[in-house]
Structure formats: structure tokens, C-alpha cells
Specification:
18 helices, alpha/beta, Rossmann fold, 424 residues, elongated, 3 domains, Beta Polymerase, domain 2
Length: 424
Amino acid sequence: MSLIVVGVNHRTVPLSLLERMTVSPSHLTKALEDLSGREHIVEVVLLSTCNRTEIYARCTRFHAAVGDVRDFLAAHSGADADDLSDHLYTYFDDAAVSHLFTVAAGLDSMIVGEGEILGQVREAWKVADAEGDHVGSACTRVPPRGGRGKRVRSETEIGKRPGSVASAAVSVASERLGGLDGRHVLVVGAGEMGEGLALAAKNRGAADVCVANRTADRARRIARRIGGRAVPLTRMADELAEADLLLTSTGSDDVLLERHTVEPLMSWRDARPLLIVDVAMPRDVDPGVGEVAGVDLLDLDDLREYAATFAEQHRRSTARAREIVGDELERFRRDHREREIAPVITALRSAAEQVRRDEHQRFQARFSELDAATRESIEALTRRIVSKLLHEPTVRVKDAAGTDRGEMFADALATLFDLPERER
């Protein structure tokens, strides 16, 4: 069986299509069930963030499984499957693992080195495991354990001065407004991104930061942390009447702010402009809002210039980070090779030990007149003979693990000694 990743990200599709590809938390369980029920997919994990939607799968047939994933994405987004193929990227086995490590390190994000993605990767695996055991033994070996993501953050400047979509959004907003000192800011959403937006706005000098969210407790928690205010989401329009800046990032499937709501609102503001930065995926704000007089609407596409500048500043650190990813990939390959060959070696030694015990039992009656020390010496001698006979084959199979020669050796051992069939 093979490991594949099929997906789209902020570089391969326009924002309008990426938005349609997004799988919200409320639809994740159904999406995992759909994917795992397809003919050529055995295990599956779905990672969907504001930057990407990717499906990691263990499959029985590579091209057929890619087709299964493509058909799922087409059905989910309403796109034509054939047209979608031009936008999809696909990685296989080692390349799939390398891509995952690169993603988890933040090197494939719009904002290079973003800190949130490692947690999002871990959460994707956790959810897939919890929602119906969609992750099996093969996939559980793949997600980057703490060191793989943390090494980049601890050993490069990217980790010491991390970026994030939230910090980028507030930086761009600050530039547009000539600074946030004395500004009134409304943050809609109290998830990890919303908290990042609120903190960044406060750190930039905003005089008043108000957090609106459906769940009041989460909004109050963030408000207390930054010394701001919390209001119900139903008060969003009232708060907009006073706000200079709206920062929004919720997990809602529906648009939260429509053009017909904003048009009368702007007339109440006496021509005072309103800047909106929508970093939700799918978007919280109707794109038509940007056509209302006095409104400046920015979305993820508008953060690309900032992202390019940030990436240029960290070019040297990025090169070192990619070296770390390469090191970790080699470690993964080495561990994987050892795990693949271990069952064969274990089965061989177990079979040999069983033969030794059976033969020892056959001759037990002849040993009855021997003293305990002599019987123990015979026991030890037979163990040493078995160990010495198996030593060279074991070493050769281990050394060749992960190569065609190793496959041939392992298959030969399994056939010659009638060992249990190996899992592929």
C-alpha cells in the first residue's frame, strides 16, 4: 500500500475556489466517512486551513485513489472534476511525507514559519483517529512528532520571529490606516485566529478592542486577556457603527456580513471610512461589501505582498529550515525501514526458537539423568547455535531494508521458512 497526499493551497487555486474546497469542522466527520468509504482508500486524514485543503491517505492503488480524492473534492466544492485536476498537486510515499513535514514546519504557508500550522496538523490526525478510527498503523507513524516541527522553530530565526496570518492581517491593516493608535477595532471570532488578531491589534496600540463571538465565554476570555470588551455576535452591526477596523475569522459556513447590512450602516457613520480584513475561510464577509462607498475590504489575497516580503526577510532561515526537514525525512525513512523489516526478523527468530524448543522437548527423557547444571548448559548451547545461525541473515536483511534487495531478502525468508505473509 502507498501513502499519498492530494490537495490545493493558496498558490495553486484562486481564493474563490480555495474557499469552496474548505471543509469546516462541522462537516469534517461526514467528509472523513465519505473518503474512507471510497474503494481505494484505506486510511485517511483531512487537513483544511485558511491556506490549504489536503487529503492524506493510505491507498491500495495510487492513480485510482487520486481519482477518488479528486471526485470527493469536486463533489464537495461543486467544481468539475476534470477542470479540478489541473489545480491539484499529488505526492507519493517519501514525497508525501516530505510535503507533510514541510507543511508542519510552516514552510509551505502563505506566511512562512507560521506557528499555528503544527497544531492544526496534529489536530487533523487527532480528529481522524477519534471520528471513527480513520487513521491506522501506517498513518499514525507519519504525523510529525514534536521534534519535527519544533526543530525548525528552535534552530532557525523563523522560530524566534514567527509570522502568522493574524499578525500579517493586522500589519497590513495598520499600514492602511496609518497606525492603530487610538483606533476602535472589532474582532469577530474567538478561535485561535481570532485571539491572534485581538492580541496583535492590542499590541499595535488599538485603544479599544471588542471581541464578538457566538460563544460568549470564549469572547470574554480573550477580552480579559487583552483588556478589551466582549459582545454577542448579534451586536456586531452596532459595534461596526463605531469601529475603524473589522478583523474577522470565524469557522462559520455562512456569510456573516452582507452588503445590505453595511450600506445603511455607512450612511450612519457620516462618511467615516471602515477597513475590513476578512481572513476567514470560507469568507465571513460578502465580497460585495467592498463595493460600498467608504468601505475598504481586504481578504487573504491582499496579504500576499506582505507574505512575499516576510519570506524574503527569512530566506536564509528558510534554507536552513529545509535542511532540517531533509534531516527529519531521512530519520523517518530509517525508522520506517527498521519497522518494515522488524516483523520478518521477529517471525524468523520466533520460528527458529520454536523448533529449538520442540527438539529439546523430544530429547527431554534422555536428559533426565543429567544434573541441573549440565541441562542448563545444553539449553544455553542450543540457544547460541540458533542465534549464530540467524545472525548473518538478520544483519543482511537489516542492512538492505528499504531497497529492492531488502524486499527480495525479506520475501525469500518468508517463503523459505513459511513465515506469516508480510503487510505491504
